[in-house]
Amino acid sequence: MSDGWNIIKNNNDIEHLLEEYCGFHDSCICKADYVSGASVNEDGAMIGSSAETAKLNVNFK
Length: 61
Prior knowledge:
By secondary structure, the protein is an alpha+beta fold. It has one helix spanning 11-20; strands spanning 29-35, 39-40, 46-47, 55-60. It has one domain (11-60). It is 16% helix and 28% strand.
């Protein structure tokens, strides 16, 4: 865990998160934000992104 965040990089991280939150039983997703990292340049051409630039933040309560 880093600064209140649970960083998921592998299956062990997923298992730890599920254990920590009891499999998310009785949990509620309060907010979800996704940033792909893709953009459009001045000519209207799409500039792709890589998996490293994409971010998904999900807030549970």
